[in-house]
Every structure is written in C-alpha cells, then in structure tokens.
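Researcher: Let's do a round of design. I'm pasting the structure tokens now; please hold your answer until I've finished.
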C-alpha cells in the first residue's frame, strides 16, 4: 500500500508541476501578447504620424509649386510691361527728335504761334519721358 501511496504522490507531484508549468507559460504568452500589442500600437501610431507628415509635406509642396507658378506669371507680366514702357519711351524720343528737326528746318520762318505750340508739345513729351524713366523699375 505504501508503494501505491508513493506512486499516487508521484503522480500528484507530476500533475502539480504540469499545472504550474502551464500557468507560467500562459503568463509568458500573455506577456508576449502584451508586448506584441504594445508593438502594434506603437507601429500604428508611427504610421499615423508618418501619414500626417506626408500629407503636410504634400500640401507644402503644392503651395510651393503654386507660389512658384504665380511668381513666374508675375515676372512674365512685368517683362511685358517693361517692354511696352521701353517702346513708349522710344516713341517719345523719336517725337522729340522730329520736333527738333522741324524746328531746325523752319528756323528762318518764324511763326510765334507755331513755336509756342511746338515748345508746349516738346515740354509735354519731356515730362512724359521723365515720368516713364523714373516710375518704372529697370529690368534685371
């Protein structure tokens, strides 16, 4: 009978060890699962943050491209205005040259009214020339 009791005690010890082993491996698994859960949560947070940064970067890039396009359009428009002003300034100079030529050709034939009128036109053209040359910034 002692042998039987000893055998039963051995079996009970074996079962007890198996239960303890099962419980400790369950805790290890739970700890591993918690670790995996934390890792997944961290990974999701990083992905979300990365996505937000990407969206912000894309918006910034789009804004930069839009600003660059608008600047190019403004530069083109400024170049057209400069060309037009240059053309007008050249026409003013030609007009002044014509007046001087006319005055020289008709120096002997003095008509006071005509001289006064030409002087007024010349004065007006000089003022316009000065205004055009000072109001418009020079191109690069």
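Researcher: That's everything. Go ahead.
Model: Designed sequence:
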């Amino acid at each position: 009978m002692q042998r039987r009791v000893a055998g039963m005690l051995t079996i009970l010890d074996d079962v007890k060890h198996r239960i303890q082993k099962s419980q400790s491996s369950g805790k290890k698994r739970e700890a591993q699962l918690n670790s995996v859960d934390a890792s997944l949560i961290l990974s999701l947070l990083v992905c979300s943050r990365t996505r937000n940064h990407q969206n912000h970067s894309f918006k910034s890039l789009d804004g930069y491209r839009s600003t660059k396009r608008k600047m190019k359009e403004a530069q083109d428009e400024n170049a057209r205005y400069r060309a037009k002003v240059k053309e007008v300034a050249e026409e003013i100079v030609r007009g002044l040259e014509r007046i001087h030529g006319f005055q020289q050709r008709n120096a002997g034939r003095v008509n006071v009214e005509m001289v006064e009128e030409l002087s007024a036109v010349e004065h007006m053209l000089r003022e316009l020339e000065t205004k055009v040359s000072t109001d418009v910034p020079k191109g690069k």
